[in-house]
Amino acid sequence: MEVALAPMEGLADAMLRDLITRQGGMDWCVSEFIRVSDRLLPAETFYKLAPELKNRACTPAGTPMRIQLLGSDPVCLAENAARAAELGASVIDLNFGCPAKTVNNSKGGSILLKEPDRLYRIADYVRHALPASVPVTAKMRLGYEDTSPALDCARALAAGGASQLVVHARTRAQGYKPPAHWEWVARVQDVVDVPVLANGDIWSLEDWQRCRSVSGVESVMIGRGLVCRPDLARQIKAFVDQESYQPLGWTEVWLLLQEFWQRVREKVMPRYAPGRLKQWLSMLMRNYPEAAAFFQHIRRETGCERIDRLMHQQAFSGLENHSC
Fold first, then answer.
1. 175 and 107, same structural domain?
2. Model-level pTM?
3. pLDDT at residue 107, as a whole number
C-alpha cells in the first residue's frame, strides 16, 4: 500500500514538503500545480515550484516528488510535460480536482470533469509526449455538480494512459465539506484496471481504517491531515507493518515549527512571512492544544522580529509561565 502527500497550492510548498516527508511513511508527494495555458514554460517556472527537480525529483529526505500540471489544452500540456521530463521529472500528474473558481473559470481543474472526452485527449497526448519510463497519473474529483460523470471520467483517464488515479471522494460543489464519499472510490476501482488511491477526510489512523473498509483500497493520498498531524503517514505504516511507534508530541512538532519559521524568514518577504507561520499553526491546532495557545500569542503580530522573540521565549512545556 502507498501513502502520498497531496499537492496543496500555497501550503505544501518545498519547505513544508521537506519537513513533512522527513517524518517518514510517505511513498511520494506532489508539487503544487504548475499552471499551463498557451505556451511552453521556461525551466525557471518548474524550478520555482518544484526545486526538488534539482535533486533527482526527490525531497531532501529522499521521498520521490511528482510534477503536477494543470490546464485544458492537450497539446500545450503535452509539450510542458515533455519539458518537465527533460528537467528531471520522473512522474507527471494531471490535475482534474482543483475546485478554485479562478482555476475553473480558466477551464482548469475540476471543471474538466464535465468533458470526459477532453480528459482522454489530455491523458493521451501527455502519455505519448513522454518517454515510456515516465508514468502519467491523475487526480480527480467525483464530478463538478454531481457524481454522474465520475465513472466515465475515470475510464477516460485510464484509457488515455494514466497508470494510477487518485480520487478525491467529493464533487467540486461539495468543496471540502465532510463527509468524503469513500464508497465511490470502490466504484471507480471496479471500472478501471489501474491502481486507485482514496483521498479526502483522512485526519487520523482511525479515519484511514474506516476509509480502507468503505473504499476497499489501502492506498491513500492525504493533504490537510498530514499538515495537521505531520507523522500521520508514519502512524499508518507502523500499523500496517505491525511496528511499535510513538506519535510525535508537541516538543518534536515545536522543533519543526522553529525550523519552518527560520526557512520562511530566509525565503519569504517579511510582509508575508508571519502569515505562513500562522497558517501552519492554525492547522496544527486540530491536534495540538499548545499550537492554539501559541497562535493566540502571535495572531495579531505582523513583525518578524517580534515573532522571533516570541518563538525564542516559547518553552517546550507550554505557555503557563510565558511572559510577553
1. yes
2. 0.94
3. 85
- Of 195, 214, 240, the residue that ends a domain is 240
Q: Containing domain of residue 14, as a range?
A: 3-240
CA distance 294 to 311: 9
Cis, bond preceding 289 (omega within 30 deg of 0): no
**How is residue 156 written as a grid cell?**
477516460
Q: What crossing angle do the helices spanning 74-86 and 116-129 adopt, rounded to 10°? A: 30
Through-space distance between the first and last CA atoms of the chain, rounded to whole angstroms: 47
Residues 164 and 102 in one domain: yes
The number of helices, as runs of H, and strands, as runs of E, in the chain is 14, 9
Condensed to tens digits (0 to 9), the pLDDT of residues 228-255 reads 999 999 999 999 999 999 999 999 999 9
* Whether 125 contacts 77, CB under 8 Å: yes
Looking at the domain assignment, is residue 126 inside a domain? Answer: yes
Residue 321 lies in a domain: no
Is there a single domain that holds both residue 256 and residue 229?
A: no
Identify whether residues 156 and 305 lie together within a single domain. Answer: no
Same domain, 221 and 264: no
Please tell me whether residues 174 and 125 are part of one structural domain. Answer: yes
pLDDT digits (tens, 9 = 90+) for 111-144: 999 999 999 999 999 999 999 999 999 999 999 9
Given 29, 76, 98, 304, the catalytic residue? 98
Name the nearest CA neighbour of 135 among 169, 84, 98: 84
At 303, which CATH number? 1.20.225
Residue whose C-alpha cell reads 465511490 in the numeric block: 184
Q: Of the candidates 157, 152, 138, which has an alpha carbon nearest to the alpha carbon of residue 199?
A: 138
Label the pairing between strands 34-35 and 28-30.
Answer: unpaired
Residue 81: partners with Cβ closer than 8 Å, 6 or more residues away: 69, 89, 92, 126, 129, 130, 136
**Structure-block grid coordinates of residue 91:** 512522474
Q: Give dist(CA 178, CA 241) in Å, integer.
A: 29
Q: Is-catalytic flag, 98?
A: yes
Omega before 135 cis (within 30°)?
A: no
Whether 36 and 174 share a structural domain = yes
